[in-house]
Write a structure and sequence with these properties.
Blueprint lengths: L1 E8 L2 E8 L2 E6 L2 H9 L12 H14 L3 E6 L2 E7 L5 H7 L4 E3 L2 H13 L4 H18 L5
Parallel strand pairs: 3-4
Antiparallel strand pairs: 1-2, 2-3, 4-5, 5-6
Helix pairs in contact: 1-2, 3-5
Length: about 140
């Protein structure tokens, strides 16, 4: 596979490049890309899903096809989905073992942007998912 696509999401430029089994989505607004992925329509028979679970479903599909998707922002790789990606925290959040978050340095601008305004509801949902997963895993309430 070879890809070189330039488009806009919410008025922001996004570059999609790829070679072999690796696809890279580069943007100055990774949160906008995640929002679009998380709210995309799923094929009939897959069921309804949104938010972090939709990102996990995407990762599982990519892994099943032996593909890797890397979303990068201004500070570097924010998240990797698909083949070869593994993270306990990401699994708790997305439900998939095929997701890996970037470093705190690359995630900080995405989280800070959410806290500043636009879509803070997703963070509350994220917190609830992590707490719920911790309760299931450890059998008690973690906050």
């Amino acid at each position: 596979m070879d890809a070189d696509l330039h488009l806009e999401i919410d008025g922001r430029p996004v570059a999609v490049t790829g070679s072999g089994r690796r696809i890279v989505v580069s943007t100055d607004s990774p949160a906008a890309v995640f929002d679009q992925i998380a709210s995309a329509a799923l094929p009939v028979g897959v069921g309804r899903m949104s938010g972090a679970r939709a990102l996990g479903r995407l990762a599982d599909g990519l892994a099943g096809s032996d593909l890797e998707l890397v979303v990068t922002g201004p500070s570097g790789a924010v998240a990797t989905f698909g083949a070869g990606s593994r993270s306990r925290l990401a699994q708790l959040v997305t439900g998939s073992r095929h997701v890996r978050f970037g470093s705190a340095r690359t995630l900080a601008p995405v989280v800070a942007g959410r806290l500043r305004g636009r879509t803070t509801g997703g963070l509350g949902h994220l917190r609830q998912r992590v707490q719920s997963a911790a309760r299931r895993r450890f059998g008690r309430h973690h906050e």
